[in-house]
Amino acid sequence: MKLMAPGPRKLALTIHVASSVGWLGAVASFLLLAATGLTSTNPQQVRAAYLAMDLIGWSIIFPLSLASLISGIIQALGTVWGLFRHYWVLIKLIITTLATALLLLHLQPVSHMAGIASVSDLSATDMTGMRAQLIADAAAAVLALLVTTVLSLYKPRGITKYGRTRAGGQQPVPHS
Fold first, then answer.
1. DSSP 84
2. DSSP string spanning 119-134?
3. What are 156's strand-pairing partners?
4. Spatial CB neighbours of 149, under 8 Å, sequence gap ≥ 6
């Protein structure tokens, strides 16, 4: 396995950390907007919340999710961690891939709500199921991103069968 040189490795890690932290922060902001959209009695605030959610979702959250996914794969492939060698990396890959895919599905009702909000005021009883679902989805995304953050920091032990085979039974000593 050819490892990245220290300069490119640190650049890839910086991009990965920045995009992942940015994604988490943007989703936390999105969650606040979703809660505001559901609970506010001010029609202008509700309208602004859903329009901002659509803009943030497509312009910030989705690009950051892709950057996090791609930079994470590059980081894994260019370091001793590997993409399929350690369970914590594999779990992060699965969570990040699923979160990115689900985000694309989740942004459809966000755009729908923004479309409605752009042409009319939403009463407290309009679309409450969808509005509540936006909060639940954003809260689940925050939780998933926090799990990937914990996995990155604690790096729990556990080498996959593939990792044991590739290492010839020896666990490589990673560098951070």
1. S
2. HSPPPTTTTHHHHHHH
3. none
4. 20, 24
Paired residues of 159 in beta bridges: 86
Which residues does 159 contact at the CB level (< 8 Å), separation at least 6?
85, 86, 87, 167, 171
Site of tokens 């930079």: 71
Q: Are 138 and 27 in contact (CB under 8 A)?
A: yes
Average pLDDT estimate for 83-98: 94
Residue 175 above 80 pLDDT? Answer: no
- 123 band by pLDDT with thresholds 50, 70 and 90: confident
Q: Angle between the 43-56 and 6-39 helix axes, to the nearest 10 degrees?
A: 160
CA 12 to CA 10: how far, in whole Å?
5
In angstroms, how far is CA 99 from the centroid of its own chain?
A: 6
User: Three-state secondary structure along the chain?
Assistant: CCCCCHHHHHHHHHHHHHHHHHHHHHHHHHHHHHHHHHHCCCHHHHHHHHHHHHHHHHHHHHHHHHHHHHHHHHHHHCCCCCCCCEHHHHHHHHHHHHHHHHHHHHHHHHHHHHHHHHHCCCCCCCCHHHHHHHHHHHHHHHHHHHHHHHHHHHCCCCECHHHHHHHCCCCCCCCC
- The answer to whether 26 touches 68, Cβ cutoff 8 Å, is no
